[in-house]
Amino acid sequence: MNVLDTKFAQGFVRMCEDGWNQGWHERNGGNLSYRMKPEDVEEVRDALSTDKAWNPIGTSVPELAGEYFMVTGSGKYFRNVSLDPADTTCIIEVDEKGEQYRIRWGLVNGGQPTSELPSHLMNHEVKKNVSQGRHRVIYHAHPANVIALTFVLPLDSAVFTRELWEMVTECPVVFPAGIGVAGWMVPGGRKIAVVTSGLMKEYDVAIWAHHGMFCSGEDFDLTFGLMHTVEKAAEILVKVLSMRPDKRQTVTTDEFRSLAADFHVTLPEKFLYEK
Ligand code: 2HA
Ligand code: ZN
């Protein structure tokens, strides 16, 4: 089957278009990866080529040995993905040691997978483990309000989690485990991938100070929805902080506990600290 006729590829392309429409992907900003199901691979097997060379991933992901991923290309613009997915995205295969990849489809005019491939694959490895294989999507974007907050809030997971939970009542239900925050680091390599995947053991969201956000989820809807929810909460917090430095009233810790009980979610007490 033609890759672009599959449901997974169409979902991937739609998510890139949606992210572009949200304004989260200036120029070549952001990247997306999807860990393909065995049936996805079977569906497109005839369209996969074997003539491309193996390349180092730049880190080691042994738990992803033999897995296939659809990923955006390095330097490619989300704005262009829906116009020409075969030019802007690719399918890669990870070797049996989890140290190399090769392109099996796409990037028809040349290029490589995303510059953040180490972070994507290390996040996938962690999430595959902690979710018993359910998580398949890793998404990196540059949403303006979350980035703005990294200049004014302490770079502390507990503070970001609590402040964003307070902004929209759905937030603790959508990301009950909270949000991990990493200080500024050089993007694109193994070092930032190690830090981010460490946060992903506990959280589905990781913020890179002065840069952007990573989200992990089971499918395109959940992962896009998670990014969207966090950024919406950040937008409200930016508006609140722009009106006055404090809040006149907010959701209390006991109200969060009642919400957790009624919605059957566990909210870690470390985020319900007294201010
Ligand atoms: O340019 O977002 O972090 C792609 C990126 C790098
Ligand atoms: Zn980025």
Structural class: alpha+beta
Helix content: 40-55%
**Total number of domains:** 2
Bound molecules: Dihydroxyacetone, zinc ion
The main sheet comes to:
9 strands, mixed
| Integer-rounded radius of gyration | 19 Å
User: Could you give the count of β-strands?
Assistant: 9
| Strand composition percent | 15-25%
Q: What order do the SSEs take from the amino end to the carboxyl end, as H and E? A: HEHEEHHEEHEHHHEHEEHH
Descriptive key words:
binds zinc ion; 11 helices; L-fuculose-1-phosphate Aldolase; alpha+beta; 275 residues; elongated; binds Dihydroxyacetone
Task: Break the fold down into its secondary structure elements and pairings.
Elements: H1 7-22, E1 31-35, H2 38-44, E2 55-56, E3 68-72, H3 78-81, H4 85-88, E4 89-94, E5 100-106, H5 117-130, E6 137-141, H6 144-149, H7 157-167, H8 171-174, E7 179-182, H9 190-200, E8 205-208, E9 212-217, H10 220-243, H11 253-263
Parallel strand pairs: 7-8
Antiparallel strand pairs: 1-3, 1-6, 2-5, 3-4, 4-5, 6-9, 8-9
Helix pairs in contact: 5-9, 7-10
The chain binds Dihydroxyacetone and zinc ion (ZN).
